[in-house]
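Exercise: predict the fold of this chain.
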Amino acid sequence: MNKHSTDFNQIVLDLPRQVDTEVAGDIEKESVFVSPWIERIKVNEDRSSVNVELRPGANVEEVAGKARRYLDVMAKQLSGFEIKVFIETKRKDTGPYQLGVNEGLIERGWMHDYGKGQVAYSGPVLKLARLINERSGELYAQAFGAKDGHFPAMVDADTLQKCGYFDSHPNAVTFLGNVVEDIDALEEFRVANSCSEGAILPPHEHIHVDGMCLNPAACFPCYPTLTGKTFADGAAYSWLGRVFRYESRNINGLDRLYEFNVRELVFVGSEDYVRSCRAKALPIVEDARQPDRHRLHGADGDDPFFATVSAAKKFWQAAQEVKNEIKIPALSSDGSVKQLACGSINLHGNFFGKRFGFNDGAGEPAQTGCVGLGIERWVLAAFTQHGFDERRWPESVREKLFG
């Protein structure tokens, strides 16, 4: 039964079926993309219904229709697949987890939060971020002979379409725009901002979107550079990538940023080569944690696909075992422990080899795989597990961070 409560500006909607806690969490997190008139969707304790909290002025019937369509497709997600664990390390620090890391970093002047998913950091935070990035890069070079590179933060829409991103994650894309090349439009924009207290944005009709985007996945800019090449023996590439994913109201300090850094590793070649690289990468990721020796958990995982394709794509990922997710314990605002995804190890098959035209030694479209480590989340996890008392940090990094 569906109920409307005008007193609380809230709708109660039934779910098509009772969902488990994993699907319930996905429903709540991805609900920010259902309608701008929805403040949030909260799954009730019985996991058979939800509370839809509306913003003032919402057209209840219209928003309810969008919410029902969203719940219908999200409830089709399957879970309960056997989760294979490939890394399980123990925490060396026996002290309590640190609550309020984001606030603590800001209070100490080590981080500035701009409030829109961007942060600036310095001091021990910057030193730790550099240490994690540099150690990972060194390990990748030693193990795979990975060539270091650099790629732009912008990527054209054609590349993202070819990578399949628009089909899977249209909600996370950021398009770039400029004021149209028109003297009147430019002058109107200039005059409006010449004496205003805050920024006056140009009207939508004066914004030109030319097909450039901020890069939403560190590996994507690499593939166009491989076009026409043959990888007879396989090759590996590594770099620090700047990544941008629109998160709407899910933005929350270092836990979930709009703009962040990823140490990326891509391997290209035959299926045997790529799969051997993935197997080899698992213990290397474990070695990458050594600077601060936090607890690490790695197991099968999946991506947060857009609602209408989520069920099918998550089922495929789970069935094919193509994604391993790396998680580190962190704390929620209420102090409860959560598993924070800080990286992943992925197999792509020959998808990118076909799309971008590069081959293996047999002349077939080459296979690829990648490893991505989210630097800021590793920093968050490290401060969560060791706190702000430098005496709790491993001696091997204490002087480097706090000296």
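Check your answer against the key: The longest strand covers residues 337-349.
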